[in-house]
Amino acid sequence: MDVLDSIRQLYPPSERPILDIQNIKGDASTRRYFRVNSRRGSAIACIDPVLLNIAPERYPFLIVHDLFACHEIRVPEVYETSGDTGVLLLEDCGDLMLQDEIPQLNAGQLAERYRQVINLLVRIQSIRPDGKTADSMIPFSLNFDHEKLMFEFDFFIEHALNAYFTGRLGEAAIARLREEFVAIAELLMLPEHFVLNHRDFHSRNIMLFGDEPVVIDFQDARMGLPQYDAVSLLRDSYVQLDVGLLEELKRYHFDQIRQQSLTSMSWQEYLRLFDLMAFQRNIKAVGTFCYQTLGAGNSSFEANIAPTLSYLRDYIEARPELATAGKLLEPIISC
């Protein structure tokens, strides 16, 4: 059965011949998306290999979807699922991403929209296991632990330094850099401050539907520092915010998580960990973009490599802990 037929199977036989199924360009993932127009209206079909032959109660997308929905986090409604074909039929929340809206907003509107999205983020970060959800279950059993952070650093080494930027750093420099990455990962291991993170909370994963933010691509949610998702949003590879607005929104996020008793860290500690986390997160993003460009043959992400690298200098200049890594990375930061 081909992909289109697997989508048609989710509809009554009488509707299948007249379905209009159009491919939608997805982001950097293994999932594929299609818009399906039928007599009942429009829906989004997601083809996810992970769904194949897995029980629904073990499928991360549905687990996190239901968790978010029961905490009134706006997510697309799930209409149908098929584990046999790996297809989900989801609510169509349109095409307008936060990234698309930004050029249409004046300064005041932009600040207000980002405060609204940060409020949504803080609601996600406020979710804790309850009587129905043990902390040994997804997503609370998953963490940005040392292993996960180093996996992302090593992904950057493999796909950015050893592939896309091959020859810019020698073997000795890469080995020394990895030692620095290990040290940075250790600095970010503060489980006493961990909260629930979406894990990819940027402007392409926030849809605007009826002027309401709708969260998508949340299946990799896990525990980590509150700065992780804040970095994804405010040091976004797809949107560069004005420095004044950036600082204002950092403070806004900090104030909100303090008011919700989600952290005991000071403002200065928040800023330090924001920069260290931003360094790690942006390094991870560059690795992904380099992999997509060379490994997956998806050149649409290549334009995001240089803007993301440009963020690194700010963190390196601000934090002594990043000085050595910054010197080693200079051949690609300055290119």
List the helices and strands and how they pair.
Layout: H1 3-8, E1 20-24, E2 32-38, E3 41-47, H2 60-70, E4 78-82, E5 87-91, H3 98-101, H4 107-125, H5 146-164, H6 171-187, E6 195-197, E7 206-209, E8 212-215, E9 222-224, H7 227-234, H8 243-259, H9 267-295, H10 305-318, H11 323-333
Antiparallel strand pairs: 1-2, 2-3, 3-5, 4-5, 6-9, 7-8
In short:
46% of the residues lie in helices and 13% in strands.
Uncertain spans: none
Widest sheet: strand ordering: 1-2-3-5-4
Q: Would you tell me the overall average pLDDT?
A: 94
Q: Briefly, what CATH class of the largest domain?
A: Alpha Beta
What's the assembly state of these chains?
single chain
Number of domains: 2
Number of strands: 9
CATH architecture of the largest domain: Alpha-Beta Complex
Along the chain, the helix and strand elements come as HEEEHEEHHHHEEEEHHHHH
Q: What is the 3D shape?
A: globular
Number of discrete helical segments: 11
**What is the CA–CA distance across the termini?**
47 Å
Sheet having the most strands: 5 strands, antiparallel
Find the CATH topology of the largest domain.
Aminoglycoside 3'-phosphotransferase, Chain: A, domain 2
CATH homologous superfamily designation of the largest domain: Aminoglycoside phosphotransferase (APH), C-terminal lobe
Q: Report the sheet-strand fraction.
A: 5-15%
Helix amount = 40-55%
- Specify Rg, calculated over alpha carbons: 21 Å
Summing up helix and strand content along with how strands pair, one would put the structural category as alpha+beta
Domain Aminoglycoside phosphotransferase: 20-253
Pfam families: APH
Organism: Chlorobaculum parvum
InterPro entries: Aminoglycoside_PTrfase (IPR002575), Kinase-like_dom_sf (IPR011009)
